[in-house]
Amino acid sequence: MTQNNRVVRVRIPATTANCGPGFDSLGIACTLYNDVELELTGPDDMVQITVTGDGADSLPLNDRNLVLRSVRTVLDQAGAGHVGIRLALHNNIPLSRGLGSSSAAIVGGLTAANAVVGKRFSQDELLDMATKLEGHPDNVAPALLGGFTVCVMQGERVTCLRLPVPKELKLVVCIPDFRLSTNKARQAIPASVPHPDAVYNVSRTALLVGALASGQLKYLADALDDKLHQPYRAALIPGMADVFAAGKKAGALGVAMSGAGPSLMAYTVENADTVGEAMVQAFSTQEIKSRYLCLDVDYDGARIVDFA
After folding, report:
1. What pLDDT does 267 receive?
2. What fold characterizes domain 7-164+297-307?
3. In this structure, how many other beta carbons lie within 10 angstroms of the beta carbon of residue 81?
């Protein structure tokens, strides 16, 4: 049974996916958040959507809105029927920058709707729904569960392992002043890669998982390297190699593309601001404006912050 006229507010973290070599399988939740407020207003089928923050002037306010689509996915599967929906969305996660804005929208809508139907669905069921909407689990899993997640697909179902990471790990994201769609970034990747490149990534993905799970962060210097997607996408992000080098020179343990880019993520335990400033300066040599944020790992994932 739906709980009409009760208002639920959900907070959803940004995510950084792939983490270098872990293409479409690894992701980390970050301390940058979107808020989704949902109210079921009655049986009149009316929809009202407001957006503030990033995307306020561009996100659709109709059936194409991803949060609305996600809310309706849960309501339909719960047999809730047609109801009026009011959504108030506040976005801090920048759009099309490789920080999981679409995953935050999906997970926010699913989590909010699940609350108003009495938490009918488990986290595993929500993860399967989110993956079907997004197409792959690497961003939606950490957005839903928090922390560092490793996902594999078993047909249409997701197997997800959530692992702890050292509390001292800092994530410094450098966000250039241009957008890059995930579809365009995926088109840059070839349909097949040489066998040695596949082995290169398998070994580094294993090393990355081991380094983060064990706390032996010194191995990140090698573990974040990749040959499956970053070399092919580099042309879409002018100066990427220079930004990587600048971040490492300033003290980062390693740097990787965040998701499909164009944001670049440095992993460090100290000198976070120094690393961020160096990355911004490196982008500026390409006449690209950028900004940086110093983030921690979010360990909670999507959470209900108010339900009244």
Report:
1. 98
2. Ribosomal Protein S5; domain 2 (3.30.230)
3. 10
Phi, psi (rounded to 5 degrees) for 145? -105, -20
Domain covering 170-295 in this structure, CATH number:
3.30.70.890
The pTM (predicted TM-score) of the whole model is: 0.95
Domain with CATH 3.30.70.890 in the chain: 170-295
Q: Is the separation of the CB atoms in 86 and 50 below 8 Å? A: no
- Which element (helix H / strand E) includes 37? strand 26-42
pLDDT at 2: 58
Alpha-helical segments (H) within 52-158: 66-77, 101-116, 123-134, 140-145
All residues at 6 or more sequence positions from 133 whose CB lies less than 8 Å from its CB, including other chains: 66, 69, 70, 73, 106, 140
Neighbours of 17 (CB within 10 A): 31
The helix/strand count (H/E) of the chain reads as 10, 11
Structure tokens at 299: 């360990």
Q: What are phi and psi of 11, to 5 degrees?
A: -115, 130
Cα-based torsion angle of the residue sequence 241, 242, 246, 249 in order, rounded to the nearest 10 degrees: 70
- Integer Cα distance of 19 and 223 in angstroms: 9
Contact 40, 83 (CB under 8 A): yes
β-bridge pairing 84-91 and 47-53: parallel
Residue with tokens 């290169």: 200
Task: Report cis status (omega within 30 of 0) of the bond before 43.
Answer: no
Which contiguous run of DSSP H or E holds residue 29?
strand 26-42
The residue type found at 203 is S
The count of other CB atoms within 10 Å of the CB of residue 165 is: 18
Residues in the chain where the model's pLDDT stays below 50: none
Nearest one of 245, 270, 62, 257 to 174, comparing CA atoms: 257
Q: How far apart are CA 19 and CA 271, in angstroms?
A: 20
